[in-house]
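Write out a record, focusing on structure:
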Amino acid sequence: MSLHKWCSNTPEILNSIPKEEQSWDFHCQSSDQIIIKTLGIIWSPQFDYFSFKTVVNCRESYTKREVLSIIARLFDPLGFLGPILTQAKLILQKLWVLKLEWDESLSNPIAKEWNDFVSTHPVIQNIHVPRLVIGKGRIIIHGFADASTAAYGAVLYAQSISEEDVSTRLLVRQIRVALVKPITIPRLELCACVLLSQLLEKVLHSLTLPIQQIMLWTDSNIVLAWIQRSPEQLKTFIGNRIKIIQRLTQNCQWNHVSSNENPADLISRGLNASDISSKQLWFLHNSRNPSVKRSGQLDYSEVNEAELCLIKNLQASAFQEEIEFLAKSSCNSKKSPQALLYCTRQRFWPLRGRSIARKIVHECVVCFKNKPIVANQLMGSLPRERVNPSFPFLHTGIDYCGPFFIRYKHQRKGTYQKIYEAIFVCLASKAVHLEIVSDLTTDAFLATLKRFVARRGKCATISSDNAKNFVGANREIKRLHNLLKFPEEKFSSYLSSEGISWNFMPPRAPNFGGLWEAGVKSFKFYLKRAVGNPKMTLEEFLTIITQIEGILNSRPITPLSEDIDDLEVLTPGHFLIGRPITSISERNLLDKTENTLSRWQKLTKIVQYIWTKWSRDYLNNLQQRNKWQFHKDNVKLNTMVLIKDDNLPVNKWSLGRITKLVPGTDGKVRVVEIKTNKGNIKRSIGKVCVLPLDN
């Protein structure tokens, strides 16, 4: 078959073709008016670009037949208008889902969506696409695939690289509308990659030019992982498509691209005609052409960056031996500032060497990791539970110690059982209450807590560390409160007011619970002095710990007075029974007659005197700060830190990044949340070491 209607913008080619076989329009019009039309695609030989002609008469209402007719007029075999056709096909899919008749008018909201689409239709005539695709030099094919819940597609670009120029042009695109039945995004991304592989096969079969490299891109890490695996290891749906991809793209390189840099993302989501012309990502030649990059004025940051690059290149050429020596040598690493300065002065005498050496060592991450410095902050103010008068054990701290081994009286010799000791400490008066715990379960602790409350009264708050038995007990108490709630508002609010508020200190931060940690230390001290480490019966152990409790509650909590006549000193026992636990008893005064009112006033005066002495002597003594006496800048978000672990050597400490700050009531940050490779953890700043990094 002999082809006719040839046209070209090159005179040499036209002269070799007989005039009767040339296009009539081409040789009958002047050169500035020549346009060649084929099924709605217009080619301008003078400017050598393609454009599109669309004629749509805007109306108030459309039928499904008219919608399909308008969409069919967009003849775009190479997919230059891909994002626009995506939107049109999605509207058509919605019409089929609504099951409208062919001549039935569209209803809202689909009618509004179609009218918005048609209103931007004339803008398509302003879109010009260069005809020239393949330039001089070596050719690289770039393919992109992407999917959304609505559609998926693939697009190919040809990149021509020569010594004079680098150009990237759109080759072809293909689109598929997703099924109405929901499919997961990874599977849709996989279908997009299959479509890209099949499209690439067709293009390579059509192109007769040598292709130097083929690079395929997707923004789905899941699909990239599937492509690396054997299809037999995957599910049938996935495995069958991976076989197709691996067969068609054996000599291709798959890579990851972010969604905002993936041009196939525009296909999968769709665009209006008014938006596509401004999308440089779709017509890559508008943004990737080096001539565009070289135009325009340089700003201040670009000049600085260029200057820095020039300096580095000059240093790399002038001091090549020195740079290689510094990269290979490690003899000066891990030294103190003094040792580093000494080694440097063996060959050189640097000006201000001491300050430079100190700065280098302090800013060196390797040196810091070998001798890290933990962060610290000004010591916080005492919590209100410790400085406000309250009933004994209204605010309590608790900790465990042990285990201890005891035997029951009638057990065989040599059979011992393990028990623990729960130490309750009043935050206001430092009074101590000791209870035996059978094991470290939540049930055992709840039983211990019930015994404590029955003897000392109900607590308003309890503070403890993050031990699992304490956390479990807190959940159990909340569950019991929820079960006991009644519809009556008064009774419900009463139960809520009687609940225990639990405060947990950060993990591995014993300084946050120093009061009850000191109680544990004192208990162990007296226990060791009293019995050493022998095995005792349960009765003997109960007797010992009760006596230790009395001793601890008879300790002075204020400094002794220098007045020889003042023999009374404030102890926790004064808040429990009005006198030290271990003091001698007073003589019986029951036979003495006394006015009842004056007796009550006298007792009230004694209590008030105790609290006055507590606030005057005890609280003033608590204000002394032996460390953490200076204000420090708060640690910042996204700071890289080393996490201190007392059970590991320094070089094994984990790295992490601060993701959340937990400021105190004074605005100072003493607790942070850190993201590590094992998850998020919470630590006090005394367990983190801030790395000396700029960012």
Q: What stands out?
A: Confidence is low (pLDDT under 50) at residues 285-292, 480-495.
